[in-house]
Design brief:
Blueprint lengths: L1 H25 L1 E2 L1 H8 L3 H14 L4 E4 L4 E4 L12 H9 L28 H13 L1 E7 L12 E11 L4 E7 L4 E6 L3 E9 L8 H4 L1 E8 L4 H11 L8 E6 L3 H7 L11 E3 L1
Antiparallel strand pairs: 1-3, 2-3, 4-5, 4-8, 5-6, 6-7, 9-10, 9-11
Length: 272
């Protein structure tokens, strides 16, 4: 009995959440929406709309002519924080998420995608297995920087972390060739020809465990209007500095994402 009650409560909450999402993002919801999404009877759909009205009074009003409820200005969600990513996928992109869908494809959303940096499935498998089981793997890595004498050499790596920098995957681990922790772009790993058990505990990763604060201020070369726009963009208010807490090992990736360029004229931000 208890499990059935929990399932019923969960299903009711899902339906109320759907009502709120449609009101918040689309601006309206009607009984046919709930009937189509959840296969409800007319009476149950009406009951759910009434329940949401009781839960969030003043959030919606019934429009007799349109036969639907419409969100009022200043509506405040009570079922959770609105998720813009979900709105893009569900209401604009046509992808079905948690029972909600826009009913087909859409030209309302575009995405700029860089070329795919393919990673060999064998490499992905090896990295995951090593991370889960504490193993070492022998790999060949091709470096991009000119003059890297270790590029193309076989080396043993003890994977410790996976890092996504916003554009590509890195595997961070103890490199026995360099005798230190290093990050390797996974798409540059040519192959893994051997996996063995780790022989000893991993050394302490000082740069991973150390946290630092990246302090940035808008580049004065942007001018007053440009700097003001950047402060508004990042919600800085009257703060002069944008302070971002980051692991020391990941600081360079964050600097790249924030546009801290080498040439001062191309920078959005200046590091303190």
């Amino acid at each position: 009995m208890g499990n059935r009650t929990s399932e019923e409560n969960w299903a009711a909450r899902e339906r109320l959440g759907a009502v709120e999402r449609m009101l918040w993002w689309r601006g309206h919801v009607g009984r046919p929406d709930l009937r189509e999404l959840f296969g409800l009877s007319p009476a149950q759909a009406s009951a759910d709309l009434q329940r949401y009205q009781e839960l969030n009074p003043g959030a919606m009003v019934y429009q007799v002519r349109r036969k639907r409820y419409e969100a009022v200005a200043g509506m405040v969600p009570v079922m959770g924080v609105p998720d813009f990513g979900e709105a893009v996928r569900v209401f604009l992109g046509g992808e079905v998420v948690s029972g909600l869908g826009s009913g087909g494809g859409s030209d309302l959303v575009a995405e700029v995608l860089p070329p795919v940096r393919a990673v060999e499935p064998q490499v992905e498998q090896a990295v995951v297995r090593c991370l889960l089981n504490g193993c070492r793997m022998r790999m060949v890595y091709r470096a991009v920087r000119r003059g890297d004498e270790q590029s193309g050499m076989a080396r043993w790596l003890r994977p410790a972390r996976l890092v996504w920098d916003g554009a590509r995957w890195h595997v961070r681990g103890w490199c026995e060739l360099r005798e230190r922790y290093a990050d390797f772009v996974m798409s540059r790993i040519v192959g893994v020809d051997e996996i063995v058990d780790g022989e000893s505990p991993l050394p302490r990763d000082e740069d991973w465990e150390c946290w630092e604060t990246l302090e940035l201020r808008p580049n004065p070369l942007l001018g007053e209007e440009g700097m003001a726009a950047l402060r508004f963009d990042y919600g800085m208010g009257r703060k002069k500095l944008l302070k971002l807490k980051v692991r020391k090992a990941l600081k360079r990736y964050l600097r790249e994402r924030m546009g801290v360029a080498e040439k001062e004229a191309e920078r959005f931000w200046v590091e303190e």
